[in-house]
Amino acid sequence: MRRVEVNALLLSRFQTMLMKTIDDFSFEGQRALIRVDFNVPLKDGKITDDTRIQATIPTIQKILKDGGSVVLMSHLGRPKGEVKPEFSLSQIVEHLSNVLNVSVKFAANCIGDDAESLSSSLKPGEVLLLENLRYHAGEESGDSSFARALATHGDIYVNDAFGTAHRAHASTAVIAQFFEGKKAFGYVMGNEIVNVDKVLHSDDRPITAIVGGAKVSSKIDIITNLMDRVDHLIIGGGMAYTFLKAQGGKVGNSLVEEDKLDLANELLAKADEKNVVFHLPVDSLNADNFAADANTNLSAADAVEDGWMGLDVGPESIAKYAEVIGKSKTILWNGPLGVFEFEAFSKGTREVGLAIADATSKGAFSLVGGGDSVAAVKQFNLADKVSYVSTGGGAMLEYLEGKSLPGIQAILD
Ligand code: AMP
């Protein structure tokens, strides 16, 4: 077991060193087929948040500047293999044209004669967007003839969609086999990989991971993977109460996964064995019901009264956590420390975010990754005060779990 873990660690280090990015290619006279993540939120046909589009602009611009042309492919929503107008990528053509300052062409089907004629006649500096990949069931099933049909659109394949890197879909993984020696990561992918690897393989100690969120069950693999890498593991959020109860504490009506109590104790024992300091909350801010305006009381974290539920870490825990974070040189944060969506229970998450920002200003490297903690840093205006905010969502979580992601592997193979 131990040997496999070490090998995976070494392999991943080499992967980062060996990975090919678009900077390793000149795209002059070449058509780049780029898998992007344009799965943007839309309301009444209008884009409400274009962060994902903006993120890929440097990749597209580098290729155009080299003298290449660009074919973009993406999914949007979940049409599940059927043509549904509300999921059409035609809705983003105008916005993309404005952002790029290039008149973007559009292929109303991502494969077929019309699309091929458009992509094969592209001139340097031109951009073509293909219609939603998920209008074809072959995308999600990883169908290789669908992937082969897509591959006709480009000379070099670029994957810049980290958000779907954990899926073995036709456009994210299967297609790479048709571009032997001509495949690369775009800047979005490259940045995500380099920055997470910076944390996962850091020698800059102490290394501290803060893991919060609702449930232990969704974070078991992350905690287990981090156990081999970090010096301190700080636990917050709903999942803390499963650990506290497993240790014999009284947690009242707090969120507890009864079937994970043994596992919680196993994780605590493992931390001990690996000399990882496992920090659980010492005090708890409790509510008499799950509501923004609930009555509150403060108790020791292992003495929550019946009828009360812990919705945030208390001030002593915050101070203790901030002290550990302040001494850390490498910091990873995944998951909120409490129900930060309710102002009354947002203090733990906000103060931990501020402590990470403070440590970063003093030279620590900090990475925030995975769903709700990313929302929290945005909510508290801390996004530009940490070293890196991952946009990866589920893909980032799987990467932190130590899994090999098909979208990354396909480029490296
Ligand atoms: P996750 O997606 O597992 O990272 O969980 C994020 C969610 O956990 C957020 O919506 C939080 O409101 C919720 N959460 C955090 N702390 C608690 C808590 N003590 N009790 C219940 N839910 C919580």
CATH class of the largest domain: Alpha Beta
**CATH-wise, what's the superfamily of the largest domain?**
Phosphoglycerate kinase, N-terminal domain
Strand content: 15-25%
Tell me the span between the first and last alpha carbons: 24 Å
Give a verbal description of the structure:
The protein is an alpha/beta fold. The chain has 2 domains: 177 residues, Phosphoglycerate kinase, N-terminal domain (Rossmann fold), CATH 3.40.50.1260; 199 residues, Phosphoglycerate kinase, N-terminal domain (Rossmann fold). The strands form 5 sheets. Strands 5-6-4-1-7-8 form a 6-stranded parallel β-sheet, with helices on both faces. The longest helix is centred in the first third of the chain and has 17 residues. The radius of gyration is 23 Å and the shape is elongated. The N terminus is likely disordered. Bound molecules: adenosine monophosphate. Adenosine monophosphate binds next to strand 16 and helix 13. Adenosine monophosphate (AMP) binds next to strand 16 and helix 13.
Fill in the keyword field for this structure.
17% strand, Rossmann fold, alpha/beta
Note the topology.
Layout: H1 2-18, E1 31-35, E2 42-43, E3 46-47, H2 51-66, E4 69-73, H3 93-100, E5 105-107, H4 113-120, E6 127-130, H5 137-141, H6 144-151, E7 156-159, E8 183-185, H7 187-200, E9 207-211, H8 220-226, E10 232-235, H9 240-246, E11 250-251, H10 261-273, E12 277-279, E13 283-287, E14 296-300, E15 303-304, E16 309-313, H11 315-326, E17 330-334, H12 347-361, E18 365-368, H13 371-379, E19 388-389, H14 394-400, H15 406-412
Parallel strand pairs: 1-4, 1-7, 4-6, 5-6, 7-8, 9-10, 9-17, 10-12, 11-15, 17-18, 18-19
Antiparallel strand pairs: 2-3, 13-14, 13-16
The site of adenosine monophosphate (AMP) has 16 residues, from strand 16 and helix 13.
